Amino acid sequence: MISKYFLRLSVVALNLLLFASCLGSSDDEIEYSPDAQIYSFSLTSRADTLNLLNATAFTIDQVNGKIYNKEPLPYLFHVDSAMLNISSSNQYFPFSRVTLKLSPDSSYTWNSSDSVAINRLLQILTTAPDGETAKLYDFQLNIYQQDPYLLTWSNRAKEYLSDSPSDQETIGFNGRFITYYKSGTNIKAASTQEQNVEEWDEVDVSTLPSTILLNSLLSTNSAVYALDEEGDVFASDETGITWSRISTDYNIAAIYGLLPSSTGKRILLAVRDTNSDMLYFALTDDFSEIQLMNSISDELPLSGFTSTSVENPDSYSTQYIVLAGGVDSNKAANKAIWLLHEKEGEITHISTIPQIPMDGSSLFYYDNRLYLMIMKEGENSFLYSENFGLSWIAAGDNQAFPSDTEDFIPRTNASVVTDDSNNIWIFGGISASSTPAQLVDAWSAKLNKFTMD
User: Fold this and answer.
1) Which of 44, 235, 238, 421 has the most neighbouring CB atoms within 10 Å?
2) Distance of alpha carbon 84 from alpha carbon 113, whole angstroms
3) CB-based contact 395:338 (threshold 8 Å)
């Protein structure tokens, strides 16, 4: 019995010795990675109450050895220190050492519990798990040094029309601005290049009837369209100067604008069925063919409204026409904001009635935001919406109109145009206080962030 137990104990002891021997040799067999690259990078700070740092995406340029944020942090952003979060290619075998270099001239070995004076951080030196291979990264925390949302207005032209207008509308078309205006019983126009707004030329638009509704003007890539008081459609040539009447199958009650879709932009209309006198939405490319859609709500404005197309390249579903102001088919004032959208072969709409003054307002889409220029208590201001008109926020003082000069006169019914260079243009309008009522001038502004590129 003793020999039997002794034999078993001997076997167990021998196995333990062999296992311990294997463990003792494991360090010699592991090959530690020579990869010193950083694979993820982020920052957090308790002082960052808005969580801006944590939401900031950092680019890791492995080729050039740089770490930076492409989208700068907001103007005046500041925290004294931050927690640094970096990772290697293998979470089980992290860097053997991380050295931080700070300005003006100091460096230290960092561990994950250390906070970093982020505004002084210049370089990050990582040493791979093998203890030999190293990689150096230059670090840059980009913060806007100027207010990116500041608008600075400039007066670009004054009294550029040859006659005093009783009504006017300015559009952008093929690299030019054209102001169409009514003087007496005549329709006239003046034109200028977008890059030289100080110089205007009178142009002959005698082919436009005096009954044209200037508020209905719509510019496309190939032509400008307008309605007259009878619902007839007129189209220009590629210059915007020579016009002709277009025969259509329907009486056109309104031109709402260019409706974006996955297949391109089409002109959205309100048309009247001569048999039933009912109003319908319709779509067309150039009025040669009109696609009849669903019926229109009686509350939708038909004239005197302001409209703009809304299309966000980052959002497939953001494709609208937005309407404000004007009067409906019963001549009642429209107090709602309307969002029109094509869905499953119909034009759908959402409306909301904000508590804001919309009489004589001007809609436009700029910097992926919907803007509304309004008149309140004798002063102009901007509202903007981050949900396409369902709710509105007053723009800050950095986007206020000039108040230290008598040149800018508060106005309603201004023509607001944006161009491909990210400029906002304001042309004319009806003066809130001065005589004559129709203003003849041009103003421009651009967000500061577009001048920093």
Assistant:
1) 235
2) 9
3) no
50 and 78 share one domain: yes
Residue-wise DSSP of 51-75 = -TTTT---EEETTTTEEE-SSPBPT
* Token pair recorded at residue 156: 């670009």
pLDDT of 198 above 80: yes
pTM equals 0.82
Q: How far apart are CA 85 and CA 407, in angstroms?
A: 54
What is the CATH classification number for the domain harbouring 203?
2.120.10.80
Looking at the structure of the chain, the number of domains it has is 2
Strands laid side by side in the 121-127 sheet: 59-61, 66-68, 134-140, 121-127, 97-102, 106-110
Give whole-number Cα distances, 49 to 53, 82, 226, 316, in Å. 10, 12, 52, 32
Q: Are 412 and 430 in contact (CB under 8 A)?
A: yes
Asked whether residue 247 falls in the same domain as residue 343, the answer is yes
Whole-number Å distance between alpha carbons of 440 and 159? 5
Higher pLDDT, 12 or 193: 193
Residue 185 DSSP symbol: T
| Cβ 269 vs Cβ 283: under 8 Å | yes
How far apart, in whole angstroms, are the C-alpha atoms of residue 308 and residue 382?
A: 15
Report the 10 Å Cβ neighbour count for 438. Answer: 20
Tell me, what's the pLDDT at 232?
95
The pLDDT tens digits of the residues spanning 430-453 come to: 998 877 799 999 999 999 999 876
Q: CA angle, 343 as apex, 340 and 345 as ends, to 5°?
A: 110
Question: HSE-up of 172 (CA within 13 Å, CB side)?
Answer: 18
How many other C-beta atoms lie within 10 A of the C-beta of residue 4? 8
Strands (E), 194-286: 201-203, 212-219, 224-228, 233-236, 243-246, 251-259, 266-272, 279-284
* CA angle, residues 365, 412, 222, in degrees to nearest 5: 45
Give tens-digit pLDDT for 352-394.
999 999 999 999 999 999 999 999 999 999 999 998 888 999 9
